[in-house]
Amino acid sequence: MDTDLSSQDRKDLDKFIKFFALKTVQVIVQARLGEKICTRSSSSPTGSDWFNLAIKDIPEVTHEAKKALAGQLPAVGRSMCVEISLKTSEGDSMELEIWCLEMNEKCDKEIKVSYTVYNRLSLLLKSLLAITRVTPAYRLSRKQGHEYVILYRIYFGEVQLSGLGEGFQTVRVGTVGTPVGTITLSCAYRINLAFMSTRQFERTPPIMGIIIDHFVDRPYPSSSPMHPCNYRAGEDNGAVYPSVEDSQEVCTTSFSTSPPSQCVFTVTKAHFQTPPPVVTDTLKVPVMGLAFSHQLSSSRLSYQPAALGVGSADMGYPVLFAGGLNAAHPHQLIGPGKEGGVPPIPSQPAHGTQADQERMCTPLDGVHYSAATPSSSEDTETVSNSSEGKCGSPHDLLETIFIRKVGAFVNKPINQVTMANLDIPFAMFAPKNVELEDNDPMVNPPDSPETESPLQGSLHSEGSSGSSTGNTHDDFVMIDFKPAFSKDDILPMDLGTFYREFQNPPQLSSLSIDIGAQSMAEDLDSLPEKLAVHEKNVKEFDAFVETLQ
Amino acid sequence: MVGPGRICRCAPPRATPAMNCRAEVLEVSVEGRQVEEAMLAVLHTVLLHRSTGKFHYKKEGTYSIGTVGTQDVDCDFIDFAYVRVSSEELDRALRKAVGEFKDALRNSGSDGMGQISLEFYQKKKSRWPFPDECIPWELWTIKVNVVNLANEQERQICREKVGEKLCEKIINIVEVMNRHEYLPKMPTQSEVDNVFDTSLKDVQPYLYKISYQITDSLGTSVTTTMRRLIKDTLAL
């Protein structure tokens, strides 16, 4: 047997390794998109499914991977690494995982390239599919969008594990021996994040605006840019950039005086000093810019307009539009964070995304509504984000969204939207959720459910605020948590709040010992009667026992 | 020709030496309502690794392999998600088996201990009148212990704990798979039904069978316990 690889085998092997590397990257990034992946089995080979597995190829990701590889293949000392990190709305970022595809020198000369190696690579990809759902970052990535996003970065060369913090753990996905070396796929992941995971990020103050350039290629020290784990096929990033610039000038991040549950998208005042009727127009103009940028961001983030806090696909934030804010507060702009504005997005990977897209719908009315109501002081109008089924309105792009909530002391004009009147002043002192879990403090602030549900109810019978709670709440597997007709005038509590509040009911009294003891005494008393009855039926019982023996 | 959907050449069939059946045991403690999802997660993960695309044989003993799709499954009662093969038939078959197991566990009246086994086997044709032999080459056993929880808070903790445990199990399974130990040789067209289950229309798992056993705490069979219980009651 030749110790050297035949040239055909060598070529095949190189091809396998190259495509294996590309597919590995696809699997990892797709697993961190935050969506459920679903591909179909096909009994007839299509000729394009490497390793006999249906793994979609996201063009952006392939492009990045090829760029990183630059025509090379993983070899000893040259590993391909996919770094998954988390970035909060405030700009803090943290590495979560590093997936490494390495090659070592241990060769298996005997192995058949075109057969065994290929099948083992296929098995390794399946293992990768399984393992990517098992590391802590998976759950984080499923919840991304609101306060943080998941980014990926591909690099080639030395593995850098220093960013993972101390005590990181490693899991080996698998190895495949080849005649030129052994391919190893492993993942090193940060563990101390696991505890802060959902809780930590739900406690952070909400995103007060988005820096659009988070989602644009940016120079990183290691010269390879971070990318959001997101997929919008056919998105032409280049075209979007110019408007991104515009929106950057338009937007500033700022915190409002309102309670922390607010997700406010602020715009510099200059744009909003025009009188209300004009506001409509000016609203539209910058929003256009934002619409594009949102397209970028939403295209980057699968249904997470995230930091925008805007119309994240899974939540219906009521939209608050600040009409005439006074000098102290920058005007609040509603970002276009709405999936409805993303119709050009073709083939969504999974059901989840579709559902989200459907959810993102800002009503036409809402926009007009907000525009129509003038306000002279700091007040906010609420435009409810219906987040309910595609409106398919031509205004989709312009739909602004989502500011959640009003400040407790915000003045509202009388002629304002009816629903705004339902804003409860001093809402923060309203009965709070008594939750034992620490989850989603983002949504726990008492006023947010109260203001949201009545507000939404007015425009739509959607208690989409529930979704905001639902989304971040661990127990809610489904993202689309919008209980219909859940508006409640009397008890300003949406279903999500209700659920959480009553999730820990007190123990049933029948389970407590006292009652048990009492009934025991009664039981004992009634025993003689029961015995008498049994004695009468002795014959039947005997017959029964006979059958058992 | 190599690449996706490539044609493979099968090795000519050879007499296989007697093989030891590789056995793996996993243990989980779950709440009653989590049994189904936990079992499905483990079984699907194993079958993901033990299924290929459908074989299409061509002349000269070559064959092409279909494509296996995958999909994510979120568990409702466990903080956990897993990947399974996109095959409704396979999913139905597993759900049926797990459903029976769950019912048996519930009806047994015992402490809720049982085990479910997934065995991969090869058929070896015997001469008539003897039936075909089923030779197992891999056996996965999942031991289940059903716990009862008193309140919602414990249930919430259980959700998370079981989720973490299942993550560990998945890693264990992958580790075993990665050892690249014995796998039946790729069969010729005439032999394919001895190695693979070709009855499904979209994927082709290795021949497998699922069985289960319910045990009570004393290890005795369930009937004896029931008998004893009734006798005790009557003796009052």
TrEMBL record, chain A:
One Pfam family from the record: ATG13
Gene Ontology BP annotations: mitophagy; piecemeal microautophagy of the nucleus; protein localization to phagophore assembly site; regulation of autophagy; regulation of cell population proliferation
Compositional bias ranges of the Polar residues kind: 372-388
Biased composition, class Low complexity, residue ranges: 457-470
Entry GO CC: Atg1/ULK1 kinase complex; cytosol; phagophore assembly site
PANTHER family per UniProt: AUTOPHAGY-RELATED PROTEIN 13, PTHR13430
Protein name, UniProt field: Autophagy-related protein 13
UniProtKB/TrEMBL annotation, chain B:
Similarity comment: Belongs to the ATG101 family.
InterPro entries: ATG101
Cross-referenced PANTHER family: AUTOPHAGY-RELATED PROTEIN 101
Subcellular location as annotated: Preautophagosomal structure
One Pfam family it belongs to: ATG101
Name of the protein described by the UniProt record: Autophagy-related protein 101
Keywords: Autophagy
Superkingdom of this protein's organism: Eukaryota
GO BP, sorted A to Z: autophagosome assembly
GO cellular component: Atg1/ULK1 kinase complex; phagophore assembly site
GO MF annotation, one: protein kinase binding
